[in-house]
Fold:
Amino acid sequence: MSLTIKTEVLKAMTEKAQKCASCNPLIPLTNIMAIHVEGGEVKFITTDATNYMKVCAPILHEEPFNASVYIALFSKLVQKLTSESVVIDAKDGILIVTADGEYKMEMPLDENGEPVDFNVPSELTTSNAQTEVIEKKIISAVIDTVKPALATDFDFGSYVNYFVTDATVVGSDTAQASMYNDKLLPISNILLDAKLLDLVNTLPSAEINFGQDGDIYVFEQAHIDAVPYIMTVYGRKLDGVSDYDYSVITSLFDVDLQNSCKIAKSALLSCLDRITLFVGKYDNNQIKLNFTNKDLTICSVTNSGVERIVYKEAQNKSANFTCTVNADLFKNQIKAQLTDLIEIQFGSDALIKFVDGVHSSVLALEDE
Structure:
């Protein structure tokens, strides 16, 4: 059995499908892409062991075709092809790609020695989902602003995920927290897998059709004439909501900080690039901040690197405020701000706050 597909379509579909294949050496299925042809449609399917992605395109091919391939090698080959079309054959456990030349790849085998054949689990392909259109620009903004505050160590449990309400999205690793004040999904008080939202952000349309059926979430791109494929992402509702201290985290944003300044984002990042060169291995990755009525001084804890940045605007009720912060976390929060002019609020012994329109974040202060 074989199929013929245009190279430009194959490249686009493979590039997208690869984004869901996490290629975890401990989970074989995450290294594989399934290829199915049925009903005049070719489907590429991948998984990260939690979420699934399906990339479909119409094709002039009447016979069913089912195969699988290790996506790392296959995708590298596909992106280097220059022929107008590609023929893919599957024979005796070997995938044969004919394009600029002929290339043979062993197909993944199951425990019985048979080629692996997998699909999106039937429980995820619900037809009873209530569908609503959501905006990709909000998804992108959440990833830009809230994701930097998420925990990256799974020892933090639920905090590696977003907490979503009907009006906010919150992320925190307990040393920093970020909140985006807008409606992301038509559901509330859930934990949302960070990887799932990254996958949804790869959909090419400005509007995305979101469907929910119980614990199942389905995201499908809106049709775009210029895009030769349709992408669908499947995910599940996560457990652990009760372990997420949402009220405690959001209360941090209510701390009254009466002092504020506005500084150019580019100036701050440029300054930090230089000052962090003087953060020594025994400095606990810390830097010192000194806010005055007119400017902010940033220095290493040993004062071996010192810079002063004049405010663009200020509203201060105290002459001086000095604090110590983690250099990497401070820099991450600067990068996460959406505007070129960053507002920093200060005066608390516990935290400083960044305010950026619908987005705000807090960073815990550290002891020297």
